[in-house]
Amino acid sequence: SPLLVAADLHKSYGPTPALEGASLAVWAGEVVAIMGPSGSGKSTLLHCLAGIVVPDSGQVRYDGRELSGMPDAARSALRRTRFGFVFQFGQLVPELTCVENVALPLRLERVPRREAERRAAQWLDRLEVGDVAGKRPGEVSGGQGQRVAVARALVTTPQVVFADEPTGALDSLNGERVMRLLTAAARETGAAVVLVTHEPRVAGYSDREVVVRDGRTRDLERTW
Ligand code: ADP
Ligand code: ADP
After folding, report:
1. Which tens digit of pLDDT belongs to each residue from 26-64?
2. Is the pTM higher than 0.90?
3. CB neighbours of 207 closer than 8 A, spacing ≥ 6?
4. Ligand 2 site, residue 139, Cβ cutoff 6 A
5. Structural element, H or E, at residue 24
6. The ABC transporter domain covers which part of the protein (predicted)?
């Protein structure tokens, strides 16, 4: 059965409808791209799947458990241990070095500093940014910063990585490099990836594309 299921989600922000019947199933290890025009509800769907936004109606189930029925503490523990996040702008902590940024999710799980930083450094190497370990985010390029952010998302070996326009601030060469490394690392660790993008070339790295229009989903059938 699917790892993560959103069923008939509805969500409004005041009078503004964002989701009006969105459904999506994510299977373990697959890479799904959520596509659609600006304002169609892609980010809201991603945030509902990740338990960051609670829908007005409909269900989100992770591993058989209903997210909206969980206490807040259980939902945030789930996000910390089972989910990883990559945003459009890396959102790295500027005061910490890159290796400290990547180690942070492990430190929050009480992994000792040396061990956390050793594992973080391995992830930086895997993302081909081992050389920026000791630099602060302000001293690295946009492409390097996003690869550091991907390393941080994967360091806890999550079951699902949520990525909201992860290449949106990058040129196409760096965007493709981030997508190639993100999807390869996810495949190695067995993580599913749920990605929001409006760029067909970025969606091309997915196994499956789901289109959101006016808050509703429509699965595209593969053409091959
Ligand atoms: P997309 O990711 O496809 O651009 P969003 O999910 O961000 O779409 O937005 C869907 C609709 O909900 C839009 O009309 C947007 O303006 C509105 N919306 C999204 N987030 C908020 C918010 N926090 N407060 C008010 N309106 C919001
Ligand atoms: P990449 O293409 O791998 O992202 P670049 O060729 O853009 O890297 O950058 C090479 C080096 O220049 C980096 O190691 C970084 O230290 C420095 N650099 C690049 N862009 C910036 C920036 N915006 N701010 C600070 N340093 C940068």
Report:
1. 999 999 999 999 999 999 999 999 999 999 999 999 999
2. no
3. 30, 31, 32
4. yes
5. strand 16-26
6. 4-223
